[in-house]
Structures
1.
Amino acid sequence: MNDLFETQREMRQRREAAIKRGVIAVLDVGSYKVSCLVLQFSNEEEPESAADVTMPSMGSFRVVGVGTVRSNGVKFGEITDMGETERAIRSAVAKAQKMALLRVDHVIVCFAGGRPRSYGLSGEVEVEQGEVSERDIGRVLASCEVPPYGQDREAIHALPVNFSLDHRTGLEDPRGQVGARLSVDMHMLTLADAPVYDLLECLKRCDLEVAGLAFSGFASGVSTLMENEQQLGAAIVDLGGGSTAISVFMRKHMIYGDAVRLGGDHITQDICQGLQLSYTDAERIKTLHGGLVATGSDSRLDIEVPNPLAQWENDRRTVSRSDLIGVMRPRVEEILEEVRVRLDAAGFDHLPTQRIVLTGGASAMPGLEELAGRILGGQVRIGRPLRVQGLPHSSAGAGFSAAVGLALHASHPMDECWDFEMPVDRIGTRRIKAAVRWFRQNW
């Protein structure tokens, strides 16, 4: 029987081959927008100018094309209209290709749908030759017992986050070290299979080959968390249009992922209903005048809004900014309370640091940092993605955190369990293989 992990290896090989050829794209399929970045790789070790990048070089690449379009067929981070989503993806990729003057065939994609669930796995084996080898790594990963998470869910991440050798722990790569017993802690993230299949089918219709799939909370953490935050522990809260992705990082690995099925679009809908505005007008007013913490002057600050009942040109309607804040704040409080519940369930309060980073397109609301500090506790800051070479300033905001994180992940991917050879006679191996069987069917 062929190794069921072979398709995962082929996926990574496909990505590596595309990078060696010099071009690959990353695609963030969200409820509010679809964003595409075309990356051009070179053999240069350092960026052209130190002023162009404020991060360590992680595989020399440059963003040469950007395409962003409004997403009309995605809700809660999941596809609800295949035709609309296909058109949005084709349009975003076409815009990025036109800017880059390059054709793209391979994409790495992320999204926040699928009701993610996290599992902590562990395994332990005897070291065969006294010195940890690649085979020992595969054997200890194969020894992890995968819980019965259901036939309707699929695993997209299986990250070894910590190795221990005898009494030494915190090892990132134990290969070549001497010891008797090797153990591993692994984090596995699963998604509902239907949203994943829908996304893969949509990409196939767009004539794109998938070279990787990631949870958007993972991608946002890669681009937004500082090195000490990833090492000591921090949570990333990516407030998107239709959902809010949550992830917790520790020792530079994602150890928890989840999502709240609420986002910026729900705030806009509340404004539509509360102030009787069209969606377009509500989004504009939210962007220009919105906020979450009222001051004494807000009740005296009038905002002119369209009046659908107006009969004369000077028949205008106004609302105070305090009224607008009064509509927006309850929904944001609801989102943050849901985030707090999930962080508590993840044991976030037991981490060495209590740093929470807010990012995503909806994180730009004035007063969010203060309100989140009250509800979530800990140290809260607004995070923007690290600058990468060639990224236009217009695409460097918090709304592009996931896309930039995918670019960094493409250039410096983390090891996952299917990157190692595993013995086929281990029960644990068969269970893990079953957990990712869908790769074979789709890629």
2.
Amino acid sequence: MEKRKNFAAVSAMLAFIFTAGIVWAGDIAINGSTTVLPIAQKAAEEYMKIKPEVKISISGGGSGEGIKAIIDGTTDIADSSRDMKDKELELAKEKGVNPVKHTVAYDCIVPVVHPSNTLSDITMDQLKALYKGEFKNWKEIGGPDAPVVVISRDTSSGTYEVWEEKVMKKERVFPGAQLLASNGAVATAVAKNKNAIGYIGFGYVSNEVKALTIGGIQGTDKTALDGTYPVSRPLFMFTQKAPEGEIKDFIDYVLGTEGQKLVKESGFVPLK
């Protein structure tokens, strides 16, 4: 897999603030998924070069936090690595909010191990068994004779929810797994532990971790778009309603030719 820029320093508590103080009219607040965060950062940086009068503030915290903020009216755009749940849509309706979903990119959720691990491929059944705590030693699935350290995302993460749906088939990750708050934190933890396995968004894969293929299928632009990679997903930006003004201009920029180039540069899969 092509090596991607390392975003391991990004954590869920990161607040990438472009401007301090009060957010005035015309400014844009973005909150939510740490997976979508690198895309939002790059797009905001370039957009503000074009329109320096617009100030954009960005914070992580997870998809659930971003969606909550869009429902509560405390952010203009919610980054999310999952779709909204029925109960979130119902709550939004109760508050007079009619969220609009904008698909901005595609992503593969990639299982990663330490570069020294001899394993290179894993099946979906093996992944599920690992995250259920059924395998205790790597040699049980063809790896080294070493204990398995399982690292997962916390339950507020959209990445976790997609993993729970596609890999765990709605079963819960076992209690012995370490829960971390962001893609960057997982990548860092795996890079520092020879016995660890974790899962991260495509854009967070770097030479500090080893990406595993799943059933012989590598996570790539092509396999994400055609659906052959088994843990692929769209990435979203939500607005409270059909966007207008600067918010619409920014969303249009992300979806346009230049914005989609930035998606690619961020290590994710453009829409086309």
3.
Amino acid sequence: MSAILKINGTKKTFDEGLPPTLSELLNNLEIDAAMVVAEIDGEIIERKSFAQTELKEGMAIELIRFVGGG
């Protein structure tokens, strides 16, 4: 059963179903949780809550990565 999330403005389909939590989504996308700020449906999610934040189809997720440089 496929499911859809909107990630950074783009619809992403998950053919095997959604990752159960925000942490699992980040793992699936190969994103280091320590280097990202996450917002779901307009609400910023605290990093310590990533593993407990359950995902549901249709959620709008914004992921902002920290980039070093000078």
